[in-house]
């Protein structure tokens, strides 16, 4: 008892063509569009973009706002930490001094008020002395009887001494020890004015104030050329928000100017040599066999060459003259010598991926080599490539510093972060700011590139398209 | 057969390295005989004759290769009474010991931290380790070594006795801190590399299949994920061993360790021809050997990888 | 299986399980590392190393531990040129004469000597023995000196023996070594014929190149003399009993040394070899070594540790050398004078190098050189320089006219790659720009390349320095003679050459010193160079170690008379 389904005739009439039947409810995204969307949604990646933008502003706009000459030396403000006291008192020009026996007082005493220009000591001759040794300390002497730095020995007939060694504002303790004719120190010291012998060697406590002479003040622009202020006027030295370096140069200005070199090298050198490494390595890995062997042995050859020696050689080949900037040759040399590690890494990855199921499938579907490499292999090695790339950034910055140090790279006084770091290392314990600031900027750069690398990795990973 | 072919190619590579270094080194201005105090012409001639520098470069090269085939690296220019062979034989074991320890530290640390960060991606452990890693590579090795040594001094002073030696060489206690310092940047690199390659495998088909089959979690993790993710680490490790064993110059100076790296760097600065050649050829051979080893390990860890 | 089976999507549970797995791996790895370390420990024992846990001073054994900046290339007195070799050889060897603690000549293996204008005679003591117990004879000296001068030895310091008759001719290969003007009438007399009168020959024989060498032992080492501890024979206070290259050396008191009563220490343990001053400071702080030098950066640390800091002259003079070749601007005297008038070496020493012991440069002749009766610089003070920027600018303008220049081109300052010379060259660059408006290019070169450029005369100015080879003002005085290979700037002055000739051959000390004073004046007036500073050393010695002597020539730090006293 079958009953035929009754369908109206119009059921067999074609539908009117509609544009909307095939459309998707959401816009279609290409691989790269999708990647960009996911990158934008990645909080870390966005932070990193802001950081990079900030660094670029710092180096490009910074010097326009902070107009201090990064090469200007100031020997009166060497290695000043940020926020150090900057006041100085106007004083007479420095004149050589040969003692003044008429200095009022008795025993060890100051001939003139102590200043950063000089501390002038005068004392009375001791009949037993063959020589006097002058010590300076930053502490009062303790039971260990350490008198501090031995500054000088004066002969018996010279009962004065002028100390000019690295004087900074603050308190110093001076001791004058009597030496015997054999050149040995005796227990005796010259008693400071108004003191009685104690159980410990007596010291003269001296407070040193920073001074500036009129001509120096004019050079610094503190005083106009036609102005003649009275001695003793107090001035404030130029402000260095991040302190000064070992020659009294402004750290902030040097960091701004140094950023150009460091960011340039830190960005382009890794980018280029990693790129070469990726191309080379994927070729070797994809073709395989004997070609792979020969290509990889060439990579080994380059790795085994002594880096320092060939850098010196490049310097000669490029004939970099004195004082010339060797940025481009340095870039070329770094690219020539540093690509193999990436190449080897990428080749290893490709060897592994080559055997994956989707590659065979793609091949069976008639995929071309280019397509296979670009569409499947490289995106799937993107993770390790990005890690290598981000890790090459500090490497390149420090290599630049090292090469500049051996005279291939930027010529002094042009700063770079890497060389500032190298110079800061020496004073790491006494004035850490000289190391910390450049290291901090390098860290920020590395952090930014790492975050960006992470973001890109997540964004470019085809397998993560459907997640989140 | 395959290994034999590899070895032959390796030998050719070494010959290339020797040749390039030989001519490169002679092309650099200056020679081993220039010293701070200029030598008078007579003394210079005597020295040139002693070391054969008076002969044409081509002849010198042929003589060098002949000696090289016999395994004779010649006499050092700076340590005039010492054979380069002796220098390598005495100092390479030190560098190798230090280097192996550093590699073990960095590989173990790198794999562990890397796997950990991949597991806890974008969460607190990941963030903390990433900051440490960035600190580790943004601070020059000079500073790390100096800080490492300083903390040892402070440790000993606080304890009032010598817990760990501050420098020198001889016992296992001398090696711990220097090898950690030496391995630090490699460890940082491997951590990130491991994290990245782990993440690539998290969603691989075979992992999903294994999970679907109900394979116990520890087995999925160790057999599938770790094993596959570790390949790039091994790729990097091979050459890194060679680099670390000869590149520990900074650590060797600061911790007063008699390694080969010191001699190598000094040789380049002093243009000590024979020592440069000796160490470069030796190091090249070592590198070639390590790379062959890595390729063999590849096939062992991932049988799909075919090299022929 | 105790592990829970997890649902595919249960990420958290999976992570937890994997984390646990990692922890187990971690523990395994730690265990493996510990095991590996014990294996390495065993291997390291074979490699050898420093005397691991020695303290700075071992009171029971009367032994001290010290560090060395560089390893001696070899302990072969015929070849040694560097400071480390000088230091170790100074403890192992002794020559005919030596310098006492007050830097005066005293007899050593020769018990007396006689010096005339034509010859020197040394009478050896009979009780002087090598460290293997055999006597030191006159033949050991003549053999040593012939070996040094033999062209086949190719010794770099052979020129120090040129005062001996035929020395130069033998070194040039024109005469066989047996023609050397040294004769040994008997086993205990050495007679030296001199090429020219050499008034300071007595001081020359204290130097390492004049040390003795025993023929049979030297030949038995097959060209490896002094390369290892067992390939060495000592004539001095100590004997090397072990030498682990790059790591350590052990010097024990020499039981056969003729003057053994003088030596109080039983052994010197050179436990560390490193050029890093921060590292040696750390070793000192950790009570591992008994001596360390200080750099400007760690002075504060030394003061805070309340150490007894000492300072001494190191003997070396540093200066700014000018290129005097005809095609160079620096040949213009007024240009050089202008620079002389603005570069304030006091500022360099007091504000930039910042170490006590460094003295601002005033003369080519350092302060420690002896004159007739007193220090040379006391008898003949350096010419006084008064800085004058206005006068300098005026001279510079005149120089510009003389040279016919529109504007000053950039001058090239050749500089080394060590941190100190970098700082100094940048400082000079800054000063000349600020005070004279002169632009300077710094040509930074690493060691050998810098020397090559100096040698080729490829510079306008260069940072140079000179350490003495022997204890006489002549070691500095002849530097800028027109014939000297060290005179890289090519300065030539007949007057200076004439004075050098007097200083070389006169036997009248007063006349010689007057000649040196004349040289000092010419260097100043002609601005041949600009003395920058005399280097000093600042150092700390363990408080219980006494009588450590610093020397300018020979062993820089001399422990041969040192003794340990715990004090009260």
Descriptive terms for the model:
heterotrimer; A: 468 residues; alpha+beta; five-stranded antiparallel beta sheet; three-stranded mixed beta sheet; 13 helices; B: 308 residues; mainly alpha; globular
Structure description:
The complex is a heterotrimer of chains A (468), B (308) and C (568). Chain A is an alpha+beta fold and 468 residues long. Helices cover 45% and strands 12% of the residues of chain A. Chain A contains 13 helices and eleven strands. In chain A, strand 7 (170-179) and strand 8 (185-189) form a beta hairpin. In chain A, helix 5 (251-287) runs parallel beside helix 8 (327-338) and helix 5 runs antiparallel to helix 11. Chain A starts with 30 loop residues before the first helix and ends in an 8-residue tail after the last helix. The model of chain A has no long low-confidence stretch (mean pLDDT 84). Chain B contains 13 helices and no strands. Chain B has helices at 2-27, 41-51, 57-69, 84-119, 124-138, 141-159, 172-202, 205-213, 217-229, 231-246, 249-254, 260-270, 273-301. In chain B, helix 6 (141-159) crosses helix 7 (172-202). The relative contact order of chain B is 0.15. Chain C is α+β, with helices and mostly antiparallel strands. The radius of gyration of chain C is 29 Å and the shape is globular. In chain C, helix 9 packs antiparallel against helix 12 and helix 16 (494-505) packs antiparallel against helix 17 (509-525). The interface between B and C is large, with 86 and 89 residues.
What profile does the largest beta sheet of chain C have?
7 strands, mixed
Helix count from the secondary structure assignment of chain C: 17
Largest interface: B-C, 86 and 89 residues
Tally of separate helices of chain A: 13
Question: How many whole angstroms does the radius of gyration of chain A measure?
Answer: 36 Å
| First and last CA, distance of chain C | 73 Å
Q: Compute the number of strand runs of chain C.
A: 22
Distance between the termini of chain A: 56 Å
What is the 3D shape of chain C?
A: globular
Q: Helices and strands in order, then pairings?
A:
The complex is a heterotrimer of chains A (468), B (308) and C (568).
Chain A: H1 31-41, H2 43-60, H3 62-65, E1 87-91, E2 109-110, E3 119-122, E4 131-137, E5 149-155, E6 160-163, E7 170-179, E8 185-189, E9 204-208, E10 211-213, H4 214-219, E11 234-236, H5 251-287, H6 289-304, H7 307-317, H8 327-338, H9 340-353, H10 357-364, H11 369-405, H12 417-426, H13 433-460
Helix pairs in contact in A: 1-13, 2-5, 2-13, 5-6, 5-8, 5-9, 5-11, 6-9, 7-8, 9-11, 11-12, 11-13, 12-13
Chain B: H1 2-27, H2 41-51, H3 57-69, H4 84-119, H5 124-138, H6 141-159, H7 172-202, H8 205-213, H9 217-229, H10 231-246, H11 249-254, H12 260-270, H13 273-301
Helix pairs in contact in B: 1-13, 4-5, 4-7, 4-10, 4-13, 5-7, 6-7, 7-9, 7-10, 8-9, 10-13, 12-13
Chain C: H1 11-47, E1 57-58, E2 63-68, H2 83-92, E3 97-99, E4 105-107, E5 110-115, E6 119-124, H3 138-149, H4 167-171, E7 182-183, E8 189-193, H5 201-204, H6 215-220, E9 238-244, E10 248-253, E11 267-273, H7 277-285, E12 291-294, H8 299-304, E13 309-322, H9 333-342, H10 345-353, E14 359-360, H11 376-379, H12 389-403, E15 411-415, H13 419-436, E16 440-444, H14 447-456, E17 461-466, H15 474-477, H16 494-505, H17 509-525, E18 529-541, E19 545-546, E20 549-550, E21 557-558, E22 563-564
Parallel strand pairs in C: 2-11, 15-16, 15-17
Antiparallel strand pairs in C: 1-2, 3-4, 5-6, 6-8, 7-8, 9-10, 10-11, 12-18, 13-17, 13-18, 14-18, 19-22, 20-21
Helix pairs in contact in C: 9-12, 16-17
